[in-house]
Amino acid sequence: MLRTVSVARVAVAAPLRCHRRMSERNRPADPPAGVGLEGLRAAAAGCRACELWEPATQTVFGEGPETARIVFVGEQPGDQEDRKGEPFVGPAGRLLDKALSYARIDRRDAYVTNAVKHFGHIVKGKRRIHQTPKPEHLRACRPWLEAEFAVLQPEVVVCLGATAAKALISPSFRITKDRGQLIPWTPPGVAAVADDGHQEADDDEPDEGAPAQTWMLATTHPSAILRTPDEARDAAYDALVADLRVVARALA
Q: Order of strands across the sheet with 214-219?
């Protein structure tokens, strides 16, 4: 039986608000409309909505088919992703691929992306050390994520890690408490379309034009498993696979 959680327990996040007014260097991105994923990817390559683009090698946009039924959202690209320009191609990506295989989800049928499209880091010696994105970075990049959802209209969205979950579900969301549970969710843009409609459907008849229910699920980011002490890593990995199997059953 699939585990679900009521939206009454976990409120879906409103548009992310920063704790302070955004500076001129940190403003919401303005993606073009009606250009598809390739058009969005091309436009995002020149994004300067926040200062994270300056030390980064390049924008790392999402990857996957427009027909994807499932979307995985991580925090931000890592060092290898920044160098290659592709999401989830480093150690965390390889662990995700392994977990997806055990859960019987084909990554080729999924779309993978991040809440922030540039690698935020500081340099120490020859190493580039990951820095968790700030609220203003999430807010600046959110329009790109919303534009991806508008094109994809996925059946299930999986938040990988606390940053993505807090940005898309609720700032109070806790992975340790509500992970692996399916939450009803409305992708950005769908509600606005429904509100603009002028024809009211009969309450006794289903609206054939209405979008199918989209579900949200949060789980651990693979990178967190890689940082888990050796004695607890297998259990953490097994928990990730169990969460992904919930997704697989929802898509069956």
A: 110-114, 70-74, 156-160, 214-219, 183-185
